[in-house]
Specification:
By secondary structure, the chain is α/β, with parallel strands linked by helices. It has 8 helices and 9 strands. The strands form 3 sheets. Strands 7-1-8-9 form a 4-stranded antiparallel β-sheet, with helices on one face. Strands 4-3-5 form a 3-stranded parallel β-sheet, with helices on both faces. Strands 2-6 form a two-stranded antiparallel ribbon.
Length: about 230
């Protein structure tokens, strides 16, 4: 632990907490100050001036990053018949119906994404208490309730990320791994930022992006100047 805190102190010394860095500078610093012994995830965090209690100010969706997320997603699909075969052919890790409901209710959670065909939502609905709090419930807004299971599985495997604003207006998202080239991380960052900017509710007043930072797993938060994107 002493070694870790020493590395953390060294990382903190390199970051000027009073400064908002350009996206390029922030990415370079995040890579430089990362001291994790594994290929850490690079994450961005937005604090938005929105009131999520208002129905028109809720921000939620999904997108495929230009360079992928670097994370291998384990995809579970609720489908039957031909759609189940389609999901298997597309590379889904787990495909089923009632059998998977029983397994998940029994405590099994070895998956990252849940996709369902619309006809299966009555079955999946029984898992609301388990999947809901973990943000795993299939939703048409994120493209995870669909008849096009091939597209949904391929996108999830190919770097699709989901995002949603919490009660305080915070949105967090993965934009890649430390091992990514800086320009690839920047491209992913810009693509995600465009999505956030376009999602600005018409009724939101004042400064929309109040705070923006980038960090790596276990790393320090680095403030980013939103205008640099």
């Amino acid at each position: 632990m002493a070694k870790k805190s020493k590395q953390l102190r060294a990382a903190l010394e390199k970051v000027d907490k009073t400064k908002a860095y350009t996206a390029e500078e922030a990415i370079a610093l995040a890579k430089e100050t990362n001291f994790a012994k594994f290929d850490a995830t690079v994450e961005v965090a937005y604090n938005l001036n929105i009131d999520v209690k208002q129905a028109d100010q809720q921000i939620r969706g999904a997108m495929v990053l230009p360079n992928g997320s670097g994370k291998t997603q384990r995809v579970l699909v609720f489908a039957r018949g031909a759609k189940a075969e389609e999901a298997k052919a597309a590379g889904a890790d787990f495909v089923g119906e009632e059998d998977l409901v029983a397994k998940i209710n029994g405590g099994w959670l070895d998956f990252d994404v849940v996709i369902a065909t619309p006809d299966m939502m009555a079955v999946v609905g029984r898992l609301g208490r388990v999947l809901g709090p973990r943000n795993l419930m299939p939703n048409p807004k994120t493209g995870t309730v669909t008849m096009d299971v091939t597209k949904a599985v391929e996108e999830s495997k190919g770097g699709k990320i989901t995002y949603r604003a919490d009660r305080a207006g915070n949105v967090q998202a993965i934009i890649g791994k430390v091992s990514f080239d800086a320009d690839k991380l920047l491209e992913n960052f810009k693509a995600f930022n465009d999505v956030i900017v376009k999602a600005k509710p018409a009724s939101a007043k004042g400064t929309y992006i109040e705070n923006l930072s980038i960090s790596t797993t276990q790393g320090v938060g680095i403030k980013v100047d939103a205008n640099s994107l």
